[in-house]
Amino acid sequence: MSGLALSFAAPSWLWLLVALPILWFWPRRLEDMRLGLLRSLALTLIVLGLARPSLPGEGAIPHHVLLLDASRSAAAAASRVAAGAESMGAALGEASTTRIILSEATAAAAPSESWDRSIPLHSGATPLGDALTAAATAIPVGTPGSITLATDGHSLDEDGRGADWGAVVMALTARGIPVHVVPLESADGGLRPVAIDPEPTTRVGSATRVGVAVAGRGSATVELLAIDRAGEVKTLDRREDVLVDGRTEVTLSFEPWEAGFLPLVAVVSPADGAGARRALTTEIAVDDPLRVLYLGDRVVEGAPRLESLLGGGFSLESRGSLDTGSPALDRFDLVMLDDRPADTVPATFQEELVDAVRREGLGLVMSGGGGSFGPGGYQESPLASSLPVEFIQKEEKKDPSTALAIIIDTSGSMGGQRIILAKEVARLAIRRLLPHDKVGIVEFYGTKNWAAPLQSAANAIEIQRALNRLDAGGGTILLPAIEEAYYGLRNMQTRYKHVLVLTDAGVETGPYESLLRRMARDGICVSTVLVGPARHGEFLVQLADWGNGRYYNASDRFNLPEVMLKQPSTARLPGYRPGNHSVEPRGGRGWWGEVDPSGIPSLSGYVETRARPGAEVLVRTREEGHPVLASWRTGLGRVTTMTTEPVGPGTEGWQSWDDYGAFLARILTRTASDATGPWRFSIEADRFTVTVVAEQREAGAPAPVASRIEEGGARVPLRFDRRAPRTFAASFPRPRDGDGRALAARIEAGAAGGSRITRLVLPAPSAPELAGRASATEDRETQGDPAAALDLEALAAATGGSIAPSDLTGFRPVAGRAERAVRVRELASLCTLLALITYLIEILYRRRGGRRPAPVGVLAG
Questions:
Q1: CB of 598 closer than 8 Å to CB of 585
Q2: Which among 358, 632, 717, 822 would be 20 to 30 A from 13, CA to CA?
Q3: Range of 243's domain?
Q4: Which residue in 735, 789, 782 sits closest to 763, CA to CA?
Q5: Residue 460 three-state SS
Q6: In this model, does residue 91 exceed pLDDT 70?
Q7: Is residue 809 part of a domain?
Q8: Are residues 409 and 527 in the same domain?
Q9: What is the C-alpha separation between 759 and 706, in angstroms, rounded?
Q10: Residue 325: is it exposed, middle or buried by C-beta count within 10 angstroms (0-12/13-18/19+)?
Q11: Tell me: the pLDDT tens digits for 805-825?
């Protein structure tokens, strides 16, 4: 050490040294210098002792910890380690040691009374992670040391999970403390269940898978049992002749029959009956059936057929007309629009539906054929933008049929250029007609005459010959010609009926208004053309107005009018494509579950659509690549489209497919998986406390509420406190029985005033009473999961330790090199001793003739 580095743990006491001069002047001035020095020295030593001085130095003594796992699975092998513990302590010499044992209340192999510390085991748990933490704490910070761990590696916490020892190993490595391991032989548990892993959520009537891990060697029978509310044991599933070589996973399945909390028991027995039946227990929360609002229209008996196909996991409520009011969407997990046209779904309800999907996580499935998507009129609907597909609706330009009667004035006033102009205007009008139109020509020249009777416009030659035969000459009596055209057109079956009058307007007067207005009421339009220089044009304008037509002027051959006879229109072609369409499966495995997608049959019809960017296509047509099943998230919810009728003619092939019901049920379940209301609930737990966490999914949501369900069925409300923005938590002590064993924690939660209930359960780590009802035994300690065992060789390698002999014979653990290897010497006791010696010297000095001290002394008083 280069210099003195004295330090004090309580330096405040050093202020008493200021009082030293008082000894020389109170109660009277001392005359004996030696006596004053002795008294001053004694008081100084007392003050130093109170200040607790210490002197650091190099070469700290190593500290070694022996950690022995004397649990039931390793008890037999642990006895040899306990016997060798004394010899190891003797071999370490002056090094300090701490011995820690993990054992039951009484450890026969190594009594806990002879150890420095005992960690009791409860409920078959072997918390090696906690034990390593305790061993690390026993080594003072800055002191070199080591940990010798004797265990079989089977590690379970109180919840039956594998111990979390990663954090403590990292801390030991950072401190430079090696872990030497003594591998102990584990008791042979035989064929046994070591883990039971049910699906996290399940519903009444839905297929639920439970994974059971079996350890050991041999052929086993694996059963999954349940205990209902009446206490009766039910066999849910069974697998025989399961070959186990080390560790094997077995998947069992069943359908829960009621909502609530269901205890499960996995039982493993040797196939030859030679060994004991071993059990493992857990508990699952079963939610209510999926509530579906079914809005069908065109598919006959769509709701009962769909409900029969889906099974008991779904509760369908079918609604016909929505005119009487919109149903409350918060009562449902999923809404299904099946082949229902847009005009039967009010726009206000569509907007409410989209808002519920985005803000509350409601699931939406839109399916159907000719009554849905584009053919159903959803192009401009509020729902259109929320769907994962775009409508492909080709437009067809339609030219509606027309019947045209052309009345040409062939009176004497039309001679010369006027009759020629009239024929040209007539030809231009006829050219606008199509073969499905009708046309006829009436001439008047003092009387009326059909120059060409009403006929197909395709007879162009006949009509042109009739026009060519017309010549001016005669009187101008127009009214009978219009009546003749009216009678001819009245019974024609065409979309438009039109009369075109070509004249120079030099005609007689008559009751035109009444005739033309009657024709207009019958759907016959009358237009007029003034041929030649403008005169009498006002009369023709009136005729066109009464006949609901138009007025034109043909003053010369350079100003021939384009007569409007009809308005072409467009129509959307049907988007439904019947026929045999081969399809191919796509999408992730989560959409298919246990269903084999390779066996999906062809479709008999579907609606042509196009997937939007970001949509997940689950099934599409093989040739065209059109989506049949597509899905995407929108807001908090999910929307899925099925461009065919689930129980209609489009899926005739699918309805005979054995896996169709399971696949359709999985599609609907995945779509409604986010319909948990405005709160997402989860459960957390440690050894002493259970916490229910509520995460807000929607701003402004009602407050979260929850209740704890006790063993007898009583409900205890929980109080939520704000933990963070949009996060609340409610905590309560972990339930335990009279022996201190942890019990299951059952929770029902939701939103205040809401109808959705979320059930959560924290299973009891061990339930031997359930195993007893299954005529089997449960021993968590000897049913350790090999996959959860502590890798002893890896632990030693990670920390720089070694493998020690099983009986510790001749083993001397090597301590790691600490970051600051210091050795602290406490001097308080030395100061107290020196103060006592000085006081005794002062007494002897006075008795041997020193000057008499003052009558009253500080130390002698």
A1: yes
A2: 822
A3: 192-279+767-773
A4: 735
A5: helix
A6: no
A7: no
A8: yes
A9: 10
A10: exposed
A11: 877 777 888 888 755 545 557
Place of tokens 């006491």: 13
Query: Other C-beta atoms within 10 Å of 757: how many?
Result: 13
Say which CATH number the domain at 178 has.
3.40.50
Q: Cα 804 vs. chain centroid, distance in angstroms?
A: 49
Angle at the Cα of 509 (from 507 to 514), degrees rounded to 5?
120
Average pLDDT, the chain: 83
Domain identity same for 51 and 113: no
DSSP percent split of the chain into helix, strand, coil, nearest 5:
25, 35, 40
Residue 357 lies in a domain: yes
Highest mean pLDDT among 9-23, 142-156, 243-257, 771-785: 243-257
pLDDT digits 0-9 by tens, 706-745: 999 998 889 999 999 999 988 999 999 998 887 777 888 9
Question: Would you say residue 249 lies in a domain?
Answer: yes
Task: State which of 644, 671, 698 marks the end of a domain.
Answer: 671
pLDDT: which is higher, 436 or 783: 436
- Asked if 623 and 606 touch (Cβ cutoff 8 Å), the reply is no
User: What is residue 615's predicted lDDT score, i.e. its pLDDT?
Assistant: 94
Q: b/e per residue, 22-47, with b = 16+ CB within 10 A?
A: ebeeeeeebebeebbebbbbbbbbbb
Residue 9 amino acid letter: A
Does residue 563 sit in the same domain as residue 639? no
Task: Return the CATH number at 654.
Answer: 3.40.50.880
CA–CA gap between residue 379 and residue 385 (Å, rounded): 9
**Residue 27: cis peptide before it, omega within 30 degrees of 0:** yes
486: in domain: yes
Same domain (yes/no): 222, 343:
no
Instruction: Assess whether 548 and 410 both reside in one domain.
Output: yes
Last residue in a domain, options 637, 671, 705: 671
210 contacts: CB under 8 Å, gap ≥ 6: 196, 197, 198, 199, 224, 237, 251, 252, 253, 254, 264, 266
Decide the pairing of beta strands 704-709 and 745-751: antiparallel
**CATH number of the domain enclosing 749:** 2.60.40
**How confident is the model over 398-419, as pLDDT tens digits?**
667 899 999 998 888 888 888 8
Count the residues in the chain. 861
**CB–CB of 290/203 below 8 Å?**
yes
Whether 97 and 160 map to the same domain: the answer is yes
- What is the Cα–Cα distance from 392 to 573, expressed in whole angstroms? 10
Q: In this structure, are 183 and 196 located in the same domain?
A: no
How far is residue 29 CA from its own chain's centroid? 90
pLDDT at 415 (0 to 100):
81
For 140-186, write each residue's pLDDT tens digit.
777 788 888 888 877 766 555 555 667 888 888 888 889 998 888 77
| Residue that wins the pLDDT comparison between 461 and 701 | 461
Structural domains of the chain, count:
6
In whole angstroms, what is the distance from residue 464 CA to residue 420 CA? Answer: 13
R_g of the chain, CA atoms, integer Å = 50
